Amino acid sequence: MHETLRIMPVAPMLPRMAAKATDIDGMKVPENTVVFPNIYGLHHNPKYWKDPAKFSPERWLTRESEGPQNKLKGRYHPFGGGPRQCVGQAFAEEEYFSMFSNIVYHFKVESTDGKPLSEMCEIGIVLPTQRVPVRFQLRD
To answer: Which residues contact 81 (CB under 8 A, 6 or more apart)?
Structure first.
């Protein structure tokens, strides 16, 4: 679940308004300026993630430089962060796990045209921006 949300966050940009004038990496941000933290960019930054474009669920099984502690270091924010963090995060994570595990248990999921599923999505405010044609094949 964490790797899926890292590689394709539901909301890749989360607009926020600066409550007061501040400085972000040397750039002055005036009060009341709307900023768009780039969650997708953060989740694909090679400074924080080894092979950031690679779908690698096993990265969450380690306690080394990647993994769950990245969430604590501000490198993983599929639900935003701070006081404006999504209030439905815990519910969404439980639903995601339940739905996904049931689908994978009962079906083999594949693209209808043979293209890798990772090549079938475009970035939008909420992903995906177009239909993703897949086939669900019942497992024996």
So the answer is: 74
* Helix H or strand E segment including 111: strand 107-111
| Predicted TM-score of the model (pTM) | 0.68
Q: For the chain, what is the mean pLDDT? A: 81
Strand, helix or coil for residue 91: helix
Q: 75: Cβ–Cβ under 8 A, 6 or more apart, which residues? A: 42, 43, 45, 48, 49
pLDDT tens-digit series, residues 107-120 = 988 888 877 766 65
- CA dist., res. 137 & res. 140, Å (int): 9
CB 117 within 8 A of CB 124: no
